[in-house]
Design a protein that fits this description.
PucR-like_N; PucR_C-HTH_sf; 5-stranded mixed beta sheet; Helix-turn-helix domain-containing protein; PucR_C-HTH_dom
Amino acid sequence: MTRALVGGGGRPGALPPQVIAILSAELPSLAEEILEEVQRSVPEYARQEGRQEGMPEPAAYRITVEQAMAAFVDQVSGGGDGYERRDELCRVLGRSEAYQGRTLDALQAAYRVGVQVAWRRVASVARERRLPAEVMTRLAEALFAYIDELASLSVEGYLEVRSLADELPGDHRRLLRMVLGPGAASGALAESAASVGWAVPDRVTMVAIPAGARCVREALDGDVLVNLADTEPHLLLPGGYGPDRAAMLNRALPERRSAVGLTVPLGEAADSLRWARRALGLVEAGLLADGGPTLCERHLLELWLLSDGPLLDQLARRELAVLAGMPRTRRIRMTETLGAWLEAQGNAVEAARRLRLHPQTVRYRMRQISATFDRQLADPAARFVLDAVLRAHRMRERGASLK
């Protein structure tokens, strides 16, 4: 048995299947233990109520740890050769540290904590299963070399962002800050622009980029202003967003993750960026489809209806209060039918088509609904509010179903 555990089968240098099965069984709980210990031991990653700006979502750290541990087991088993997903996740961690303006000390500390927790678990399981010393030695060598590999990938991502930030002329960064500030139309902006040969446009389009996303600086047009070192990276496109600009963004943002704001007068650039960031947030929350890039002009209604979640909740409680005591199935049936009827402007045939029901079924339901929502349906203003609340509710339901 000992000889089988040491020699194993498969590729040369691979650990035997029995050991791989033991390690695989530990992965789910080990990933959780690593995350908890990192949050306890490294202040920068301590568990917080809200996510820090510019940092990946908490779920992103979990995915990275799970991917890294699964790839390690795959690697020591002599399995697959491609780990592109894992490599990119590690680079994203490094980029995030650079966007935060921090050194790599905290991330390196997190890696050290991770390998210590992993080795403690491996040693404990090895004692319980009485694994041979030779297997333990090979596991130790493989694990510590593997962590060095992951740390090197994060360094790559960190240096990528820092080098891009260093390449950007300081005058161009100041120009972008001036455009987004209160003095966008001032003479100071014109003077600064003239000094670096940038033609001040009448209209601009802002683009929001996820923190940690890769951006190929060389692929951007020469007149584009960019701030990649900000906690919320963004671009300024002079003029509108047409096919040429779309092709440029596809080249510059290989991950196809961005949100394009509305084209606005120069003095309203901050609004365009605010809408773009809001759209990007809705994509990350699953409330907008991640088609990349996300164009705000195609989602104006969603941006408006979902602009203030807590206020929307208050409005829904007031407008849908009559449904509170109903069984869940009946409540869902009523809101779906009423929503389709309002969207169809009271046309039962069209509402039935949307719901894939017979028109008579819709008419029967609407007679019941009209008695419940008598006041709102009789008042045009109240009917408008009810329609908006139901639309927003459906968007949230779609977002929740995608998670």
